[in-house]
Amino acid sequence: MSGSAWRKDVLATPLGELIVIQDDDGVARAMEWAACAGRLARHLHRHHQNRRLCDGDGGGALLETLARYFDGAVDAIDALELRPAGTPFQQQVWAALRDIPCGTTQTYGALARRFDPPTAPRAVGAANGANPISVALPCHRLVAHDGRLTGYAGGLARKGWLLRHERRGEP
């Protein structure tokens, strides 16, 4: 697997282009808005610097599932297999993000209290900010203690849109 190239595709969405990196098995490894391509490049350099990327063909189950999500099947992303690279604590936070039901939000503090032992909301925020798989690891579902939208690398306008989209798409 180390000698083969991963696919890099670009998916057109209502929020702009989404860059999707998937491995040989079609599993998402990284995903970021094209407007944040520098952030994606830093992550790939830090965690996958020896990995070659080749241009994808725009097809496959991962991209089809993401397209369905943006078309209104908002729970489609729940079944995606994801393999983000990060520390053990980051992995725990990212797994917990997937437990936040689609169409709902949770505060950083509430998520922090779910860990044993409970951790600081800032530590959760830092792990959330390092999320390498935007949208599918739903970091947009975390909000400030008072419900305000805060802390989304893709911009608060995108975060708000994703939350409204998920609420409308809820069965």
What report would you give on this structure?
The chain is 36% helix and 16% strand. The protein has helices at residues 37-48, 61-70, 88-97, 108-113, 121-129, 156-169, and strands at 6-13, 16-22, 28-33, 53-55, 106-107, 142-143. The termini are far apart. A hairpin with a 2-residue loop joins strand 1 and strand 2. It is of the alpha/beta class. The protein has six helices and six strands. The radius of gyration is 15 Å and the shape is globular.
SSE order and pairing:
Elements: E1 6-13, E2 16-22, E3 28-33, H1 37-48, E4 53-55, H2 61-70, H3 88-97, E5 106-107, H4 108-113, H5 121-129, E6 142-143, H6 156-169
Parallel strand pairs: 1-4, 5-6
Antiparallel strand pairs: 1-2, 2-3
Keywords:
4-stranded mixed β-sheet, two-stranded parallel ribbon, 36% helix, globular
Summarize the structure.
The protein has 171 residues and is of the alpha/beta class.
User: Which stretches of 5+ consecutive residues score pLDDT under 50?
Assistant: none
Strand residue percentage: 15-25%
Question: Major sheet: order of its strands?
Answer: 3-2-1-4
Terminal CA distance: 39 Å
Find the structural class using helix and strand composition.
Answer: alpha/beta
> In which range does the helix fraction lie?
25-40%
Backbone CA Rg: 15 Å
- What would the average pLDDT be, to the nearest integer? 91
Task: Give the SSE order as H and E letters.
Answer: EEEHEHHEHHEH
C-alpha geometry: globular
Number of strands: 6
Largest sheet: 4 strands, mixed
| Count of alpha/pi helices | 6
